[in-house]
């Protein structure tokens, strides 16, 4: 099935907020089993255990929800505590199993993005392959199984991939000219920004993975430009696609790498890899002539391809790792990846004239996708079961008759302790964000001394102004940003602030990383705050006579993890606004300058437009443009700190009120959920057993792989 969004957009569907809303229905068992077809048997076993654990947890939550609804159904008013509990239960019941993993394929026209997706999904000509007259014209998402929910205008259905591909033609392919040179028939693609294709459940790509075919920087107009950036920022993985003949240099390739690294800074991306395509293309006599002497003799085209692929991997891995180290913190996870570069051949995947299927590395990319999804499933289910256990602890404590004589005293002690720790957290966040001050100042100084050279590089064309006049006018009309089909994407605001980004990028990445607690990392400070509260609760529980594993004490510990765990999503969503505040500030300051230049017409208009831009930038720099950009970013950091502290204060106060104040605002005559609590307790304990089983299976699989013989080359090749 395929769904399209048009450029006119559509209002999102309203979200129901009904206390008595029915939870979503459970999947059929056969349907669940089909989701694992793409995984080897060892990984299937692990996934089924996690799926079973999650399914049983949802059943326990649903039973608890139904009991509570029946308890209060006829009441005129429902206490706030019970409302909180019922809404939290419903939210957990309807929480998505796993948010999709978006893998963005990012490359220029002709790099082989669509061919690569076709090979990965085992459909040779499903997406258009760039040629003289055809290329992909918009952002295309390909996934297996259930379609993601979003507003849509058009639905296309087909049981056959070939038939659906034909139906999709007018929406995703741009045909510049017919073979006889005449203008091609009118296609609908100019009205389409986004296409989503959902395939039947696959033996190759698991449900929950979305492959995004992102057109290159010169492949679409300015209407799609903002959507292009948002799509990249949504991807947790980016594959930079470059064919073998372009990978060794060129501005377009460097621009793609830089945009991908920026996505790690401002978006959700945690992994970047270079995928070198069309690696079967090799002229053997030329390769042998340029090959360094002294190496082992090459006997065939196949040996030459494999040798060159290995050299490309070593060279590009070293270059890419050095580039990532300059921009990202030293312990960023992608720097530890064993594979940063893949050498693939979609053509050889189908033909296997030179290379085996494994040597085309298409299966290696599929394995990478599976491992990412399996790891995410493990982390998501662990978090889900833990959060559900905490909620059942609270539910069970509501109907408890335990009423400690010193409870109000201990509550006040805990409140004071939490208030003190929030103040310390606020100071720690301030110190963390203060690490940006020095690199920002250095970046501003560099920007002030280099901005004229940067402008010259952007405005001066080696071939003169012919054809550049209209492009420059478009740049000014779009406030300094323009994406065309013939030139690389132009962004004067980004170019002018690049010296600042060069200084702040490593520190910015350190602030938003996860890892060892350091002065510059944000999340470890929040984790330390969480652990200090949990330790205090245990201490109070022991002194007050609570058992270590009592419902009340365990709820407090688990619920704090759930509350503070939700902060990470809030921080990631705000991160892009903070990061882009520099360019947004410069763009705002130069708005009048762009408007003035855009109005220029007549003789020598191009040079006069350039002069107007230069004068405008000079004037703004003299008036403190870069210093204002620095202040705006620091203000964004201050707003982020304030938002974090307010959320923590409000959530902790609500939690303590609910957990430590029986009677007031709560409801004592709820249905007995003791059996559900006991079952949830067993499920929580079984998390460790499931994880140990997965490790044992993985170890056995690795042993068997080491013991198995390696595959030989394809028939007819000399070894």
UniProtKB/TrEMBL annotation:
Regions that span the bilayer: none
Location of the Dynamin N-terminal domain: 103-246
Start-end of Basic and acidic residues biased regions: 1-23
GO molecular function: GTPase activity
InterPro entries: Dynamin_N, Nuclear_GTPase_SLIP-GC, P-loop_NTPase
Coiled-coil stretches noted in the UniProt entry, renumbered to this chain: none
Superkingdom of the organism of origin: Eukaryota
Region (Disordered) location: 1-35
A Pfam family reported for this protein in Swiss-Prot or TrEMBL: Dynamin_N
Identification of the protein by name: Nuclear GTPase, germinal center associated
Organism: Rhinopithecus bieti
Name of the encoding gene: NUGGC
């Amino acid at each position: 099935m395929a769904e399209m969004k048009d450029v006119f957009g559509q209002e999102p569907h309203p979200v129901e907020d009904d206390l008595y809303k029915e939870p979503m229905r459970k999947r059929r068992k056969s349907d669940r089993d089909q989701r694992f077809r793409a995984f080897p048997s060892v990984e299937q076993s692990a996934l089924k255990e996690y799926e079973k654990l999650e399914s049983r947890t949802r059943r326990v939550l649903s039973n608890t929800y139904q009991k509570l609804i029946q308890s209060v159904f006829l009441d005129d008013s429902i206490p706030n505590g019970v409302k909180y509990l019922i809404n939290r239960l419903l939210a957990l019941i309807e929480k998505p199993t796993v948010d999709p993993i978006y893998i963005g394929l990012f490359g220029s026209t002709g790099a082989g993005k669509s061919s690569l997706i076709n090979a990965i999904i085992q459909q040779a000509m499903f997406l258009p392959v760039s040629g003289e007259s055809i290329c992909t014209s918009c952002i295309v998402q390909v996934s297996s199984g259930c379609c993601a929910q979003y507003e849509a205008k058009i639905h296309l259905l087909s049981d056959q991939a070939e038939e659906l591909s034909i139906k999709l033609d007018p929406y995703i392919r741009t045909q510049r000219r017919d073979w006889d040179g005449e203008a091609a028939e009118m296609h609908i693609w100019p009205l389409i920004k986004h296409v989503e294709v959902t395939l039947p459940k696959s033996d190759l790509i698991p449900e929950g993975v979305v492959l995004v075919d992102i057109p290159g920087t010169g492949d679409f107009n300015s209407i799609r430009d903002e959507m292009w950036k948002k799509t990249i920022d949504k991807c947790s993985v980016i594959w930079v696609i470059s064919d073998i003949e372009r990978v060794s240099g060129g501005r377009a390739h460097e621009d793609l790498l830089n945009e991908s690294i920026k996505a790690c800074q401002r978006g959700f991306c945690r992994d970047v890899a270079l995928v070198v395509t069309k690696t079967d293309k090799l002229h053997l006599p030329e390769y042998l002539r340029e090959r360094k002497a002294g190496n082992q003799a090459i006997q065939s085209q196949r040996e030459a391809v494999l040798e060159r692929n290995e050299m490309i991997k070593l060279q590009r891995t070293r270059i890419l790792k050095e580039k990532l180290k300059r921009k990202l913190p030293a312990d960023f996870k992608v720097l530890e990846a064993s594979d940063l570069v893949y050498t693939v051949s979609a053509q050889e995947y189908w033909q296997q004239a030179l290379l085996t299927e494994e040597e085309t590395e298409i299966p290696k990319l599929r394995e990478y996708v599976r491992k990412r999804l399996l790891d995410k499933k493990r982390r998501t289910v662990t978090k889900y079961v833990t959060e559900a256990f905490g909620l059942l602890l609270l539910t069970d404590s509501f109907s408890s008759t335990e009423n400690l004589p010193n409870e109000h005293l201990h509550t006040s002690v805990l409140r004071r302790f939490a208030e003190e720790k929030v103040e310390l957290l606020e100071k720690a966040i301030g110190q963390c964000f203060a690490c940006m001050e020095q690199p920002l100042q250095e970046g501003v100084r560099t920007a002030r001394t280099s901005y004229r050279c940067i402008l010259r590089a952007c405005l001066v064309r080696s071939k003169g102004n012919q054809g550049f006049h209209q492009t420059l006018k478009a740049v000014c009309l779009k406030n300094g940003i323009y994406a065309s089909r013939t030139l690389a994407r132009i962004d004067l605001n980004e170019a002018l602030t690049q010296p600042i980004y060069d200084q702040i990028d490593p520190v910015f990445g350190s602030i938003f990383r996860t890892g060892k607690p350091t002065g510059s990392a944000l999340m470890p400070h929040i984790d330390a705050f969480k652990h200090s509260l949990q330790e205090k609760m245990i201490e109070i529980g022991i002194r007050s006579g609570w058992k270590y594993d009592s419902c009340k004490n365990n709820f407090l510990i688990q619920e704090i993890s759930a509350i503070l765990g939700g902060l990470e999503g809030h921080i990631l969503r705000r991160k892009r606004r903070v990061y882009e505040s520099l360019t947004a500030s410069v763009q705002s300051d130069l708005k009048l300058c762009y408007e003035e230049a855009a109005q220029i017409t007549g003789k020598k208009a191009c040079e006069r437009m350039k002069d107007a831009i230069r004068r405008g930038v000079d004037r703004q720099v003299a008036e403190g443009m870069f210093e204002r950009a620095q202040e705006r970013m620091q203000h964004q950091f201050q707003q982020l700190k304030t938002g974090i502290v307010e959320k923590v204060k409000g959530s902790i106060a609500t939690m303590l009120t609910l957990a430590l104040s029986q009677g007031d605002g709560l409801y004592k005559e709820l249905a007995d959920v003791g059996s559900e609590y006991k079952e949830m307790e067993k499920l929580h304990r079984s998390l460790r057993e499931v994880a140990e089983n997965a490790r044992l299976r993985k170890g056995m699989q690795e042993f068997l792989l080491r013991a198995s013989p390696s595959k030989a080359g394809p028939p007819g090749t000399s070894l």
